Each structure stands twice: as structure tokens, then as C-alpha cells.
Amino acid sequence: MTTAKRDTYTPTTLLQVAVQVFNERGYDGTSMEHLSRAAGISKSSIYHHVTGKEELLRLAVSRALDGLFGILDEEHARVGPAAGRLEYVVRRMVEVLIAELPYVTLLLRVRGNTDTERRALERRRDFDHRVADLLKAAAAEGDIRGDVEVRLATRLVFGMINSVVEWYRPDGRGMGEREVSDAVVRLVFGGLRNPE
Amino acid sequence: MTTAKRDTYTPTTLLQVAVQVFNERGYDGTSMEHLSRAAGISKSSIYHHVTGKEELLRLAVSRALDGLFGILDEEHARVGPAAGRLEYVVRRMVEVLIAELPYVTLLLRVRGNTDTERRALERRRDFDHRVADLLKAAAAEGDIRGDVEVRLATRLVFGMINSVVEWYRPDGRGMGEREVSDAVVRLVFGGLRNPE
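Predict the joint structure of the above. Result:
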């Protein structure tokens, strides 16, 4: 039984609830019944806001992807030597990942079982290619090492950045966003070796 | 219906099948019926080998963890300056991850819902601490940068290494194991910046 509750949701607040359920149960394992129970409103109230769970998924992964693509339009990502632009993009990726933690977490788990998921994977690949191009340009300008293949380097750098969703929790205790983004930038560009 | 097949499995080959199913369906989503169908033998034949799916999970994650802990007992991980030992451990982690790809993939997805999973998470944490200690020792010896907190650096380095399971496929085409382990060692210690 659904506990009756007045439907005071906006698309944004309903999405918040849905994304949490998707991340807990997996998208495939989530039914409209689960969403209705978590939101405390009836299924038909949910259908008043969206056409179904796939639209909620689309809205959620779009929010993550729009955040990431937005970085590439920012001035520091467009102007100056490629290595500086790349450093800016890496820092901002960590910031967006932390600011949109549940949405990016969901995006990173998408496996491609539905049209929405396949389109999300395609946009993720686009984004990866844009960053790989930046890396390639920085290598051509001599600022990035040439002994690691660009696609492989991009994958490994994304691996480090994306792993933040596995453990970062915005609970006030623990690490701040700035500490994490500084650390990622230092390790991605300088590595562990003592620079002194 | 299970297609009848003579049970010629050994514990090792049955484990191979089970791990593939676990990785495809998720451990929670896998039933004995799924395992029986994938193996082509009856459930009671499977029970002839193991007590149930949790034992298969235990065997699988133990194989991954034994591989990882084995690294720490190797001579190059025990002798010499900490930075050199750390570099050796990072390279060997990538090698073990690739050699035991399905087993490590399963290990990294374990969430702690059963005793077996909780024990696996505990052993993973132990391993993380052993590597963090090595990092701390290398920092004390002045070979590792001091401006990134040790626990955070360990998490980010593990993030890069573990991300290899997301895309590495041993299909003969594409990258070789050596190219990947070289790239990880270069990026973890030297970063992207051109060392020349």
C-alpha cells in the first residue's frame, strides 16, 4: 500500500527521489511501484509528472551529461594552451561529479539495455573523445608525455576521476571537494613522485 | 528445463561458469537455476561440487584476493626502498587484475549483503591498508609527494588501476597486458606531464 501524501513534487524533487532508488536497486530492478513507495505518492501521480521510469532515467543522465558538456563551453576550457585547458577540464570534472554525485553515479552504471541508456553511452563516448582530443593536442604541443597512447591515457585518467563516486560522501565529515579536486589534478598531471 | 550433460566439471571449471553468470546477472540476481542452466548440468550435480551459490562466490573472490595478497609476499614487494616496492606492487596489481579479470571484476562489485561479501570487503580493506602503508613509507623516505594525503592518494591510484576491469578485454585485438601495465606505472608515478 502506498502511504497517501499530497503530491507537492516538482520535476526536480521527484527526480531526486527516483535517482536515489535507481542507485540503490539498479535501474532494471526498479519498478513504478518502488518509485511510488519511495516518493509516497500514487503511481498515477507520478504519471502526472512523467511518462514513466525511462523518462526519469533520461532526465537524470541528461542532468549529469549536461553538467559535463557544460565544462567544455567554459572559457578556460576553450582558450589557451591545450595542457592548461585539459587541467581545467579535469578539475571541473571532479567538481561536477561531486556536485551532481547521484546523477553521475547513475550515468556511470548505465549499461545500454534501453534506447535512453544507449543514447547516454553515446554522449559519454562523445565527451571522452572531446577530452582525448584535448590530450592529443597537449601532446602535440609537447606538454603531455608521448609514451602513453592517448586513448589509453584518457581511459586511465577517467578511471581515476570516476572512481570518486565509489567513496565520496558529502557528509560534512571527511574530505572537502577542494581537497579531492586538488589531489586529482596533482596526481593526473604530476603523479605520485615527489616533484621536489 | 536443464539440457542434460554429463557432469565433467572440476571445481575450477564450474567456478569459471559461475563467475561469468555472477558478472552478467549480478550475484543477487543469480539463482541456482541460472547456474544450472549456464553449466548445462542439474542443480543436484552442482550441489555435488559445492554447498550453494555463496560457496561459489567465496571461492571466486578468494581467488582474486589470494592473487592480490600473493603480490605482497613476492621478493620485490618486500625488499628495497618503499617507492620501488610500491612501483612493483602497482605493476603486479594490473597484471593480476588482467590475469584474473572475471574474478577481480566480481570482487570489485561485492557490496556486503552476505557474510561472504562482508569478509571479502574486509580483506579488500586490509589490502588497501597494506598498500597505503607502502605509500606512507615512500613519502617518509621523500620519494613520494607529501601534498596529497596518503589515504586519498591510495584511493585515487586504486581507482585508476581498478578501472581497467571496465574496458580491458583479452580478445587478442587491442592492447596487450604489458602496454596497460606500463601505462599505469608511468601515469601513477609520473603523471601526464611530459618528463622531458
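The two ends of chain A are 64 Å apart (CA to CA).
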